[in-house]
Write a structure and sequence with these properties.
alpha+beta, FAD (chains A, B), eight-stranded antiparallel beta sheet, homodimer, globular, 3 domains, Uridine Diphospho-n-acetylenolpyruvylglucosamine Reductase, domain 3, Oxid_FAD_bind_N (chains A, B)
């Protein structure tokens, strides 16, 4: 499958001079994403196109020469989706950042390399809101969000990336560009190939243009923080809140995650608590029913403390939650897991992970978009310790 | 492709006695849905299973004997999706009506034959809400809603059927039953074959079990009705409302549709107005910002009258809108169209349809889920008039 460097002139001919990287130091940053896969290969070349036509040219060249393609967004993935193979062609979308907002239809058309935060900021200037907010929203790209069908903190109420994608332009493996969806809010005719692409991790093609639905400016959001003596109490409070109201945020961190964040940010988090719950509501009703319900449930589960925060403090605590993965990462090499459960089974999952950590004498920090049952057990290991393997062996496999 | 009646004993053997219909008078009601296709064929047999295993038995028999299958829900479709072919096997889900609600996870598992209204009523008893509300919700089935990815009046804010489907059990063409999705609120791993099935009109398999997401009891809903002198004024008001707020309902009927409904229901609708707009909001904020905005926009477009309704009157007017298709149907044979546009293009579409109706001297009533740009031009024709064809020829084709 490897291709001689003799073929590279043809690739260079088909693309602008600065769009093709082939020197070893240029290739190095494109070998890995944030999963830091120790088995990553070295690409033959990296292409950084600015247009759909340039993506097509690169894909056609790869198809003709049977060179495997690894599509890449901002390279912030934690599960190795952009890990290069030896002799592959990396096609990175980082220079594809155009954006065009249509306030009348409340939609936006973007190129895939635009960062989530850039999109949010641009539409906010027009009084509009793009809800999906992965914890990495300041550094991750929309193309990557689509490839992984990214969620986030507000997704418990406002849905995941798939819920906002109205249209895609994609380049298929033979270099054809096709449009999926018509960019309409209501469009239910025919098989939904659009939704098949969302979350397909670059395996079906490369997204080159995206039409997204927007919402009006978000309603005011009130945040409550609670600290618990036991993970059981925290997990049961979460399950009750999720069944009683529609929180706009319902996040969880355990002691290991809280301490990792506090080591970095010194926000005055409670290092002794077994579990931390951060709940939000944008219920604007005059009686603040949701807020009252959330407070009552948290207080009924024997908390150390419950704090109704100011908006500033609430945003700082949400940032603390978003900082959890890099903070835990700073403690050693990270193996990120991504486990979804029905919310009533959350206590059981937390228990099970604790038991695995104890049995294997390994640190597993536990954070969760708890309100939708999406959890991230964060296994911290030492890549230089042979007993802890090379990061691809689950801790239970060596017990 | 036709199969001898000699094969029917094998089908009968595989199924309970009362699940297989083969007598002509029994078959007749299963030849057509509400599209009343004049070219409908006569099935060899109709199977009315109660379980997934019975659906599998029928599908296996059909696969073995190469008999085409026409899946059928409640038979309320207006576009002929359940029209029988000569010698086909109709598999109808009307006896598959089990329901199991899980309040803790706010999900429900149903068989496909359950009516949308039955589902809504059952979950409402537990303080839960299933939003999708096609105008036919009292008579259409959940299986049919999934086959067509049905929308409805509240979908402008709360989304279509696809947004609520978390899991499916489907029987494929060879009789295998497979599960798609895991019934979890957050589930973004792998290709979304689940979403590929939603809206696939029975072409990929037969849905035999559905897991649906529910919401808490809906917030209070306030309704405003406005009557306009011109369709332009109405359409422009709609586009402005859709851009300014997030209405929970934004419906439109033209004069022909209003008159057809008034002929049947005598609700005191304004027969003289060129266009009728029905807007709803469930903004519960203390300043009722959305309601104020909607009223201001409607009043700025030279209306004949604007009425802030009581909840009872609002529900009666929504019922009037839901009654539009059967009311127009009573005027002659109906050719239902289903056209989606970006909302700013709504005035242009309404104009274009009016021009086609005039040029062809045919009645085209126009109704719309205007807030999401989903319109239904309703062409009324006389099936016995040779000039008006047999219902499959678009009016423009004979001009």
């Amino acid at each position: 499958m490897a291709v001689g460097s003799a073929d590279l002139p043809k690739l260079r001919e088909a693309l602008p001079l600065d769009a093709v990287l082939t020197e070893a130091p240029q290739l190095e940053p494109y070998r890995r994403d944030r999963a830091l896969d120790p088995d990553a290969g070295t690409p033959l070349a990296v292409v950084l196109p600015r247009t759909t036509a340039e993506v097509q040219a690169a894909v056609r060249w790869a198809a003709e020469h049977r060179v495997p393609i690894v599509p890449r967004g901002a390279g912030t993935g934690l599960s190795g989706g952009s890990t290069a193979l030896d002799g592959c062609l990396v096609i990175g979308t980082e220079r594809m950042r155009a954006i065009e907002i249509d306030e009348r239809t409340r939609t936006v058309v973007v190129q895939p390399g635009l960062l989530n935060a850039e999109l949010k900021a641009a539409v906010a200037e027009r009084g509009l809101w793009y809800p999906p907010d992965p914890a990495s929203f300041e550094i991750c790209s929309i193309g990557g969000n689509i490839a992984t069908n990214a969620g986030g903190l507000c997704c418990v109420k406002y849905g995941v990336t798939a819920d906002y994608v109205l249209g895609l332009e994609v380049v298929l493996a033979d270099g054809r560009a096709v449009r999926l969806g018509r960019g309409l809010v209501k469009d239910v005719a025919g098989l939904s190939l659009l939704q098949l692409f969302v979350g397909s991790e670059g395996t079906l093609g490369i997204v080159t243009e995206v039409t997204l639905r927007l919402l009006p400016t978000p309603p005011t959001h009130r945040t409550v923080a609670a600290w618990f003596r036991s993970t059981e109490d925290a997990a049961e409070a979460i399950a009750e809140i999720a069944a009683a109201v529609r929180p706009s945020m319902l996040e969880y961190m355990d002691r290991a995650a809280v301490n990792a964040v506090e080591d970095q940010l010194a926000l005055g988090l409670n290092r002794e608590a077994a579990g931390f719950v951060l709940a939000g509501t944008d219920d604007a009703g005059p009686d603040a029913r949701e807020l009252t319900t959330i407070l009552a449930i948290l207080r009924a589960h024997d908390p150390i403390s419950v704090e109704e925060t100011t908006p500033e403090r609430g945003e700082r605590l949400a940032s603390a939650r978003r900082a959890a993965i890099p903070a835990v990462e700073a403690k050693g090499r990270l193996l990120l897991e991504d486990v979804g459960v029905a919310i009533p089974r959350l206590p059981e999952l937390i228990h099970g992970v604790e038991a695995i950590a104890r049995a294997n004498d390994v640190t597993i920090a536990f954070i969760a978009h708890a309100g939708d049952g999406n959890t991230h057990p964060l296994v911290v290991f030492d890549p230089d310790d042979p007993a802890e393997g090379r990061g691809r062996t689950a801790p239970t496999a060596r017990s």
